[in-house]
Amino acid sequence: MEQVGTEDVERIARAVGERPFRIKWAPGHGAPSNRRYLVGCRDRSVFAKVAAFDYTADWLRREHDVYLALSGEEFLPRLVGWDDDGAHPVLVIEDLSGATWPPPWTSAGVAAVRSSLERVHDTAVPSGLGGAEEILEDIREGWNEVRADPEPLLRLGVCTGAWLTSHLDELETVADAAVIEGDALVHFDVRSDNLCIRDGSAVFVDWNWAARGDPVFDTASWLPSLAAEGGPEPWEMLSGHGEFASLLAGFFLAHAVRPSIPQAPHVRELQEVVGRVALLWAAHALSLPLPDGG
């Protein structure tokens, strides 16, 4: 079983309804918040995710509820099994390792994500999902944190001090005006490690942030990471919307300077990368000079 803990083997066996003949660690970014496995069963291969902490256990339960509610939709994987021992729940879905996982991005891949997102947004919202402001509870704290202590952000070199002094008021005002609530089903965590392309269509995983919200903001929140990975610039994909760009820039950059997260050590670097793109998008949309003085 390749150094897989006995308790996880038993959990997975209960979830799939049979004892697997092979379990191996699944490749990924290495964050220990969940234990991820590729599992060989009698007639199929599946993917199992075991929660490692209390907060990820709650996320996994929320994700399981979404899979149940959206069963049969083509934009998410097929649910295979579930087990919850009260401490380390297990979610088992079909194995998508044979699909294409960007990057690199192609025009067809970008179009597939946009098309699948439209289908997500046109799908009836399952009962019990929270609203955008409830799920993204700290989305609006970014520029306020920067105003209180700008030095950590300036040390990143994403903008000059003079630029921040000149434009912080406008960035914060515009971000505060962003409306992210809505009546559509939204994923709210669209990025390359949460999606793959199969048979020309995008399939989204990690549904623990699913909510009721604004579909344009759902798309907008994907665009900075898309551009950072070599895809089109956000303003080429979504004209205007400086309010979303500024909101995302403040959120990601304020979080990027926080202490590293032991359970997810890659997150701060990712937040800095996408925050830089979002800030450029905000400058472009609001007709501001480039933030790095270039």
Main attributes of the structure:
294 residues, Phosphorylase Kinase, domain 1, 9 strands, alpha+beta, 14% strand, two-stranded antiparallel sheet, five-stranded antiparallel β-sheet
Descriptive report:
By secondary structure, the protein is an alpha+beta fold. It folds into two domains: 6-94, Phosphorylase Kinase, domain 1, CATH 3.30.200; 107-285, Alpha-Beta Complex (Aminoglycoside 3'-phosphotransferase, Chain: A, domain 2), CATH 3.90.1200. The chain is 44% helix and 14% strand. It is built from eleven helices and nine strands. Strands 1-2-3-5-4 form a five-stranded antiparallel β-sheet. It has a two-stranded antiparallel ribbon with strand order 6-9. Helix 5 (142-148) crosses helix 10.
